[in-house]
Write a structure and sequence with these properties.
This protein is α+β, with helices and mostly antiparallel strands. Helix content is about 20%, strand content about 20%. Strands 4, 5, 6, 7, 8, 9, 10 and 11 form an eight-stranded antiparallel sheet that branches. It comes from Paraoerskovia sediminicola.
């Protein structure tokens, strides 16, 4: 990897040679090759195997004999210096038009609006020279007017504003599963419930049970967390859980925090509310925020049903009925502040049943009302069951009900009062949208009223499509969402796949743009406690450690807020399918044989030893990246401008620029197994660049912006 920064301003080109599996970052006067990228050299354009033409009712206006003629040479797009990208500059008169791009002089393949079949509309108030550009990888066409530049005037100030940066969106997160981080207080291991593991949930030899980590352990290891450059700790849910669920071979414990019974109390396996307050105070003294992972979708599995059946029953088969017997859909009442009265005996497809010993187990008390749950059986993960079905048996809350919205607002406002700095919100897409429209506003307004202007909430919408993630940012007061699109694309790139995947990723950033939000706030991550670790995803590649480092390079040097999953900094990879329990190793000496036998990305065996080594290769690498990012505003919150994207394994390059610093930082990453070279244009002609990260010799751009 190389990072570079120039000393001059303007347009220019950057030549960077790319060493195998490397990243280069440079700025100012570039005096050394960017780390891992190497030197980019000019290459001759490759003849296009396919041809592309602009077609539409504007073709006769640009010299074609007919409109909608895919074989017209006057509107053909020519190859550019970037593989797979074609363009043409055309003078178009005033008027209203429609167009698309056709392939190989025929209609067998054509791309229009958003890369689809619809024509792209165009309206011009006067004759304009337009540059039409088509990207064969994304199938998207862009149009830019040329020759409209003029001098900057005072009148332009009215339409110029600083880029949007959501308050609280410049963090470097450390995501920690409290039970698996450090055991600072062994006296709370069983939570006072005795030695029977099926009662207490404590069995450090079983990966599905509590292993002993706690809040005191995090307090004891704050220096370790701080050393990674962490500015915010994100804790897995810390509320009191049902200790054990299931039976026999299916029994496991609530060590992860997602089986909540009491939303007002810290789980006694982890500590006390007072210990949490102490952690917050001690973290704040180090300049570190503390975030809670929270849930509104479900509680622990407490409600059974009289029928003893658990498959999902849809509303078409058995509708909800109010207390008088009239059928209704809860969605019709969501967000209205009103809701029908329900009867637990007649309103649901399954009649809810709660054991007498559990009748009052949930806190606050309103959660013990069985009519505030959907009671439809287990979700099938499709259709209406996504929001109405139980999450693998967990009691799915009727979040359409106004009492639930108000109740959860009060619950989490109390934790804001205690000192929490922000929330990661679990299972967001499994809760109706109207809930988020109201709940996020109420909680954010409460935080702001306390003077917490940087209070930040981000949701887990488990999907890699920005079109499905972004509405939660655009249409609610949720500050942001976890960037699953980044996770998918970054993992693919680090594994050696096409750099065009990153191009498509960042091309979707505009979906998050509003007058108040942008993609710069997205928490970016490489793996987690549900899907598995980045080390596992890359374990079958040619160079797991180097590719793991490359993935972290990408995360720390691009837009968004990087999230390190605890243990990744020690090279943890996991085994098996890489998911769930296989990605939840303890940093303290494990007693789980399966964990102890696992391989780290460095090739070592994890073993039954503490893993808090600040000299571990990945710990040092991440700490260096974090320090670089923290010391360079351009890398944390600056604009990001793509410079190059190879069509296959190779180089992805971009610039980062802070509007106040006005210094270009260049980043080039090579994911190929051999050295690579590319040519691209930068913002800074006639500049030399100082290397901030990486190795190599001096690089300079000439007056035209090209560099060797």
């Amino acid at each position: 990897m190389t990072l570079a920064r120039p000393s001059a301003s303007g347009r220019g080109a950057r030549r960077a040679g790319a060493a195998a599996l490397a990243t280069v970052v440079a700025s100012g006067t570039l005096t050394a090759a960017l780390t891992g990228v190497g030197v980019v050299t000019p290459t001759a354009a490759v003849a296009a195997e396919r041809t592309f033409a602009l077609v539409g009712d504007l073709q006769t206006e640009v010299g074609c004999p007919a409109d909608w003629a895919p074989d017209c040479v006057e509107s053909e797009l020519a190859p550019t210096g970037t593989d797979g990208v074609y363009a043409a500059d055309l003078e178009v008169p005033a008027g209203t038009y429609e167009y698309k791009v056709a392939v190989d002089d025929a209609w067998d393949e054509a791309y229009g609006l958003d890369g689809g079949a619809d024509n792209i509309p165009l309206t011009l108030a006067g004759p304009t020279t337009l540059r039409f550009t088509f990207d064969d990888a994304t199938k998207l066409t862009s149009v830019v007017p040329l020759g409209l530049e003029g001098g900057y005037t005072d009148a332009d100030d009215a339409i110029v504003s600083a880029p949007v940066r959501q308050p609280g969106s410049d963090e470097q997160f450390y995501f920690v599963m409290t039970d698996r981080f450090a055991n600072g207080d062994p006296s709370n291991d069983t939570a006072g419930l005795g030695d029977d593991r099926l009662v207490s949930g404590f069995d450090p030899t079983d990966k599905g049970f509590y292993e002993g980590g706690d809040i005191q352990g995090i307090r004891d290891r704050l220096d370790y967390i701080e050393g990674l450059g962490t500015s915010a700790i994100w804790l897995t849910p810390s509320f009191k859980n049902q200790p054990v669920q299931g039976s026999g071979a299916d029994a496991s414990a609530g060590y992860h925090g997602y089986w909540i019974t009491d939303f007002t109390q810290i789980d006694p396996h982890l500590g006390t509310n007072e210990e949490l307050e102490a952690l917050i105070d001690e973290a704040h003294a180090k300049g570190i925020k503390v975030y809670f992972d929270i849930i509104t979708n479900h509680t622990a599995d407490v409600i059974d049903n009289e029928q003893g059946e658990y498959s999902y029953v849809d509303q078409a088969t058995t509708p909800y009925r109010d207390a008088s017997g009239a059928a209704f859909d809860p969605a019709d009442y969501a967000g209205t502040g009103d809701f029908p009265e329900l009867d637990p005996a007649t309103s649901f497809p399954y009649t809810p049943k709660v054991a007498a010993s559990s009748a009052d187990v949930k806190v606050p008390g309103w959660l013990n009302d069985p009519t505030l749950y959907h009671n439809r059986g287990n979700s099938t993960w499709t259709g209406e069951s996504v929001t109405y079905g139980d999450f693998d048996g967990l009691d799915d809350i009727m979040t359409e009900h106004p009492d639930v919205v108000t109740g959860f607002a009060e619950v989490y406002e109390d934790w804001v009062d205690l000192g929490i700095d922000g929330f990661r919100i679990d299972t967001v897409k499994h809760v109706n949208f109207e809930f988020w429209e109201q709940w996020t506003t109420e909680v954010l307004e409460h935080a702001h009223a306390l003077g917490k202007d940087d209070f930040f909430m981000f949701g887990e919408v488990y999907d890699a499509d920005a079109a499905k993630l972004s509405p939660y940012v655009r249409r609610t007061d949720m500050s942001s969402v976890l960037d699953f699109t980044f996770q998918s694309s970054a993992t693919s790139f680090a594994a050696g796949n096409s750099a065009k995947g990153l191009q498509s990723l960042f091309a979707s950033d505009d979906m998050y743009t509003t007058p108040d939000t942008s993609a710069s706030a997205l928490p970016t991550f490489l793996g987690n406690h549900d899907m598995g670790r980045i080390g596992y995803f890359l374990s079958s590649t040619d160079a797991p450690q180097e590719r793991d480092e490359l993935a972290h390079d990408l995360m720390y040097l691009t837009r968004g807020q990087p999230v390190v999953y605890y243990g990744d900094e020690q090279g943890f990879a996991g085994a098996g399918d890489g998911k769930d329990k296989n990605a939840r190793q303890s940093l303290f000496a494990t007693q789980v044989d399966e964990y102890a036998d696992q391989q780290l990305v460095t090739g070592e065996t994890l073993g039954s030893v503490d893993r808090y080594d600040t000299d571990a290769p990945l710990y040092s690498h991440i700490a260096d990246l974090a320090a670089l990012r923290a010391g360079s505003p351009a890398l944390s919150s600056g604009a990001q401008i793509e410079r190059h994207a190879d069509a296959g394994a190779g180089v992805y390059a971009f610039s980062r620029v802070d509007r106040d610093e006005k210094v270009e930082h260049l980043v080039a990453l090579n994911n190929a197994g051999e050295e690579n070279s590319v040519t691209f244009t930068t913002l800074t002609p006639g500049a030399t660049y100082d290397v901030l990260l990486g190795e190599g010799g001096p690089v300079a751009a000439d007056g035209s912006g090209r560099s060797r």
